[in-house]
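Reply to dn_fold:

You asked what the input looked like. This is it:
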Amino acid sequence: MTVNSDDRRFQDAISPARLHGEACIECGRREGLLTPAGHRYTESSAGGRLGWAVVACPEHVEEER
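and this is what came back:
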């Protein structure tokens, strides 16, 4: 999935904690079991793509697979 910075849902989801795998990519939850949930991509200032390994809480892990 490519993150579109014009999409409000993903503007909130691009927090450093979510991109660094410290919080659920969907809801921002930090406590409990966080499971690998694929990657998100953002654009660099040079126009390239940056890949981030993200995690999801139990409630959102199935949505991410």
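The longest strand covers residues 35-43.
Hope that clears it up.
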